[in-house]
Every structure is written in structure tokens, then in C-alpha cells.
Amino acid sequence: MGYSDIYAAWKADPEVFWMDAAKGIDWITPPSRALDDSNAPLYEWFTDAEVNTCWNAVDRHVEAGNGGRTAIIYDSPVTDTISYITYDELRMRVARLAGALAAKGVTKGDRVVIYMSMVPEALVAMLAVSRLGAIHSVVFGGFAANELAVRIDDARPKAIIATSCGIEPGRTVHYKPLLDAAIEEATHKPDFCVIFQREQEPAELIPGRDHDWHVFQDGAELADCVPVKGSDPAYILYTSGTTGQPKGVVRPTAGHLVALNWTMKNIYNVDPGDVYWAASDVGWVVGHSYICYAPLIHGNTTIVFEGKPVGTPDAGTFWRVIDQHKVKVLFTAPTAFRAIKRQDSKGEFVGKYDISSLQALFLAGERADPDTIEWAEKLLGVPVIDHWWQTETGWAIAANPLGIEKLPVKIGSPSVPMPGWDVQILDEAGHPVAAGELGAIAAKLPLPPGTLPTLWHAEERFRKSYLDHFPGYYETGDAGYMDEDGYLYIMARTDDVINVAGHRLSTGGMEEVLASHPDVAECAVIGVTDELKGQLPLGFLCTNAGTEKPDAEIVAECVKLVRDKIGPVAAFKLAVVVDRLPKTRSGKILRATMVKIADGAEFKTPATIDDPAILDEIRVALKGIGYAPDA
Ligand code: COA
Ligand code: AMP
């Protein structure tokens, strides 16, 4: 069956489709039905089933006689390490850590925050938590202590598992001091912490609270997998919304297992045993779904890569990894390829390696620009597949399902909706628009298995953020259009979220930080176009009347403040002081117009603008820092 038939079959009977997909999972109590709509418009899947995530990702492969297969390859050019973990070994490691956690009182439903660099122990920690039916919340290492504290207070973890440090090219990231500062700042305190000491920078442990990873597990009993209900949360992953308070996306256990397992063959076209590599970080949804869970659930070999596409040591690293480990599918963000292209535009490094194992490159996380796609296609000689999804969805809304049928690629489009997704383009009043017309991208409820049923302890925010605007639909927050052939085009966010190097960031969150600077009266942050990172945040600062401090000093302090409060990942390095911000007569800051000016794009002065002269002031200020080329 081709894509159209499979999509039509899903649409005709979603219940049959998902019950069939559920056969790929080992159940303790199989589901009697797929969808539970008893609480619509909040939907759940496989609610009456009992299952364990870790069993499906680890134990079942051992039981099936595949324990000798490599589960994880750790490839770390920044520490010059390559190591391999079989499924047998992974089961031992995970069961032992789970046993030690259980002995310290971690049980089903407890939260455990994980703050770790890209080491295989991060996956061991995630799986050990899920083995106990507990709920993990992984926090990306590029976030500052304050961001970690906010997440600790929201998730209220019983324990935190961390690495002593992370390694970025040229510097060591001091995770443990950041963790200490975050716990100090948070109102909620964990019962205990487990610290994986990295030899590059072992940390000082706080007696009574902190435990060394190895000592902690010494002599621990091996824990069994704990059954949970299909709708119980597997994890919480915080993501940026419009404010500084991140949204706690809840991932339901059974839907997550069923959907991810389905995607591995149908979208990525890999079979158990194949090597699958998502070059991302466990702190992001791509890392959750496609470094940890999906490849392991499906019995693949996954790669934990601790390095960058360039500089570790050169722009040939990706090809070296593909060659050395015989990678069949690579998944990364377009920004990684832009980085490689910038350093090796002719692609000369590829010639040094044998990358014939590679069957496809998948890109997601941000818009894939046509130049990058064409360059990658020519260089690698394999299909380059853009696919579109979000932290909220956990897997692709739209893709080119290579395992079903390779549809014609239309550059600039992540192709077509996957089964489970009835995607519609809506006008402001919620009516579907014609093909080719721009609108808000929404998905008809219910969303498929694996997607968020709610936000952690914030059902009202969930309804308000995603359901209320277009009743009967999930609002994606992206705008775009669908062509006559049903191909989607993702054009922009409809909210204050920007995408920097594939990392999702809130301009509203940055504005909250800037507004806390004592000399800043008012501010706005926009995302300007950047050749490498896609977008970069740029701040406009209006200082208090009578401020004597030089503008440059205020800008430098603001840059440091965002780095300290949000973290280096915000990449906030650009700001200008202006007298006034352009606003509508009702006081709304005209951020979209400022973006157009900064990018040198054409625009119409909004009819509602209060004082058009301010736009010239903005243009002059932007030119002063190298932006706003003439349109
Ligand atoms: N821990 C601590 N700091 C981190 C970090 C981590 N895990 N990850 C990134 N940072 C820091 C970086 O060191 C950098 O700090 P700096 O301002 O001191 O240089 C800052 O956060 C910004 O990071 P990033 O935006 O990633 O820029 P970069 O220059 O380090 O790397 C790319 C640029 C394109 C090479 C890199 O972003 C990349 O490989 N991206 C593609 C893959 C990916 O991660 N996608 C995400 C989701 S799919
Ligand atoms: P995140 O939740 O971090 O995965 O970010 C999700 C957002 O990234 C989406 O809502 C889009 O705005 C953007 N995004 C992800 N994938 C794509 C893609 N393939 N094309 C365009 N934008 C994308």
C-alpha cells in the first residue's frame, strides 16, 4: 500500500489503525481500545492498557535473543572516546540504577529531573526512571541555573541526576555548580542527587544530599519493570512558550511507545539492528524521541554523539561517524548542515570517508532552506527529507514516509501529513482556507497517540494555548499553507517563539529578563534572520530617563544578564538602545515590522501605527549594528 492508501485507511478507521500499530508493543495488559474520548476535548489513548516503557526499549530485545546487539554507541570527539553498550549490558545498567533509586524511595509517579551532558549515562538515567514507572524531566545543559530552578519548582522532583560537567569545544560547562545554584534558588528541594562524575571535572559532593553515581549503585538490587497505565506520563519536557514560564509538555506512556515504534519503519525506513543517528541533544524532544526512545523501542542501535558538526575536530566529523558506525539514517537540524557548508562549501571532507551506508538524511527543528537541502542532496547523494514536528507532538506531523513510499520531494515543504494528522489551514475565524492561501496551521482533534494530552499541572494553560482559539482543533503555533497536492509549507510562528540553531526560545522570556535590568524602562526582543542559526534574538532597550550609564555598558550588562538567567543557548548577543518602540495606537509593540526592517525586507507601514517616524529611528539604530540593509 502506498501513502495515500495508508492515510485513507487511517482516516476511515483510526481505531483499527492504531490498534494495529499497537501490536508492535509488548503489553502487560493489552488495550481493549485505542482512543478514550470520555473527557473530550482532552483525549487519551490506550488508557486501559498496562505497559512499561523500559521493558519495550530494553528488556524485550534481550528476551528475544538480541541481547548481544549494540544498543548504544557513544562517540565523543570532545573527549576522544568511543564505546559500545549491548542490550544485555544496558539492561544490567538500567536495572541497577533503577534498583538504587527505588531503594532511596523513588516510586511510580515520582518525578526525577535529569541534567546531563551527552553521555550514555543520560539514557541509562532516563530508562531507569521509566523502569520504575516514575516520570523524568530532562533539562538541557545549555540552560542557566535559573531556568533549571523554574523547572525544579514546577516538576517537584524527588531526585535529580546530573553530570559533574559538560564539555563544549574550548570550555567546560560547570553543571554541578549550576545545579547547586538552581537547588538553592528553587523553593522545592529534591530529597537527593546522584552525580555522574566526569573525569574532565569531578565535582564536590554535598554530604547527605549528593551521591556519587557509582557508589550510589554499589550492591543495589536489580529492579524489575513496574507496570503503569497507558495514559500515565512517561516524561515531562519543558519547552518555550510566550512567557518566561516554560510549558511542561506531558508525554503519555502507551501512545509514545506505539507512535514512536510506528515511525521507525514507516517514516525513517529502518529495521531492527540498523544504526540510527539523531545528532541532537537529550535535552530536546529530538533527543528524547530519536536518540533515546524510538531507536531502542524498535531494536536499533542509537548513537550518543558528544560533539559539534564543525570544530570537533573538523567539518568531516559527521562523515567520519557515518563511516565508522555504518549509519543508515542521520537526523539533525538544518543549522548543522549550514555550519558544515560554511566551513567546507565544496564538501571536500566527504571524499575522505565511505558514507555508502547512509540511506537518508532527515531534517527538522526549524525551516530547512532550499540552498541547504540542495547542497546536502548533491553532497550525500541520498534523499534529504525535511519533516515538521514540535515538542508537543513528539513525532512528525508532516513528513515524507520513506518506509511506506518515497513521495516526490518538493523543496521548501516537509511534505504531507502523517496518518493520525488531519491538518487544516485556518483563517482567523477558524474557517479552512483554499489551497495555496496562508493561514494558521491546525490539526483536527483528537491528536494521534504520543502527543501531549495536557501540560503538567496546567490544564487551563493547555486549553488556552492550544485548544481555545480554534474549537475542535489543536493550534500548532505555526503559520503556512498547503498546496493543491496536499504538501505543507511552514512559514513562520504565530507567537513569540523563535528558533535559534534549531533551539526553540521565547522572546517573551528574554524580554522579562531584560526588563529586570534597573536601567531598562521598556524593551522588545525580535528574531532576526541569521545565515547560520536561522534566527538570532535582537533586543531593543529603552532606558530610564536620566540614566547616566553609557548605552554600550547597558547593552553589555543586558547580554550578560540573559546569559546568566536563561543560558548560553539563548545566543543573545545583539541589542541596541532606542528612544522609543514602534507601537499601535492601542499600545501593541510592532515586532513583526521591526523584524522586516532588520532583515531589509519590504513591508507596509501598519495602518494602526501610532507614530510612523519611530520606524526611521529603529532603522537607524539597526544600521548602527550592521542590520537593516536597504530593501
Ligand atoms: N551545555 C552547555 N552549553 C551549551 C550546550 C550544552 N549542552 N549546548 C550549547 N551550548 C552553548 C554553546 O557552547 C554556545 O555557547 P557560547 O555562546 O559560549 O559559544 C551557546 O550555547 C549557543 O549554542 P549553539 O546555538 O548550539 O551554537 P554553537 O555555536 O555552539 O553551535 C551549531 C552551532 C550549529 C554547530 C549547533 O547549534 C548544532 O550543531 N546544531 C544542530 C543540532 C542540534 O543541536 N539541534 C537541536 C535540535 S534538533
Ligand atoms: P521544537 O518544539 O523545539 O521542536 O520546535 C518546534 C517548532 O520548530 C515548530 O513549531 C516550528 O516552528 C519549527 N519547526 C520544526 N520543524 C520544522 C520544519 N521542518 N520546518 C519549519 N519549521 C519547523
Describe this structure in words.
With 631 residues, the protein is of the alpha/beta class. Among the domains are: 87-226, Rossmann fold; 501-623, ANL, C-terminal domain (GMP Synthetase, Chain A, domain 3, 2-Layer Sandwich). The protein is 32% helix and 23% strand. It is built from 18 helices and 31 strands. The chain has a 7-stranded mixed β-sheet, with helices on both faces. Strands 7-6-8-11-12 form a 5-stranded parallel β-sheet, sandwiched between helices. Strand 6, helix 5 (120-131) and strand 7 form a beta-alpha-beta unit. The longest helix has 17 residues, at 87-103. It is globular and about 70 Å long. It binds coenzyme A and adenosine monophosphate.
What is the strand and helix layout of this fold?
Blueprint: H1 3-12, H2 14-21, E1 35-36, E2 44-45, E3 50-51, H3 53-66, E4 70-76, E5 81-86, H4 87-103, E6 111-115, H5 120-131, E7 135-138, H6 145-155, E8 159-163, E9 166-168, E10 171-173, H7 175-185, E11 192-196, E12 210-212, H8 213-217, E13 228-229, E14 233-239, E15 247-252, H9 253-266, E16 275-278, H10 285-297, E17 301-305, H11 317-325, E18 327-332, H12 334-343, E19 360-363, H13 370-380, E20 384-386, E21 398-399, E22 416-417, E23 423-426, E24 439-444, H14 459-467, E25 473-482, E26 488-493, E27 497-500, E28 503-506, H15 507-515, E29 520-530, E30 534-543, H16 551-565, E31 574-577, H17 591-599, H18 613-624
Parallel strand pairs: 4-17, 6-7, 6-8, 8-11, 11-12, 16-17, 16-18, 18-19, 19-20, 30-31
Antiparallel strand pairs: 1-2, 3-13, 4-5, 9-10, 14-15, 21-22, 23-24, 24-25, 25-26, 27-28, 29-30
Helix pairs in contact: 1-2, 3-4, 3-5, 3-10, 4-5, 6-7, 9-10, 12-13, 17-18
Bound molecules: coenzyme A (COA) and adenosine monophosphate.
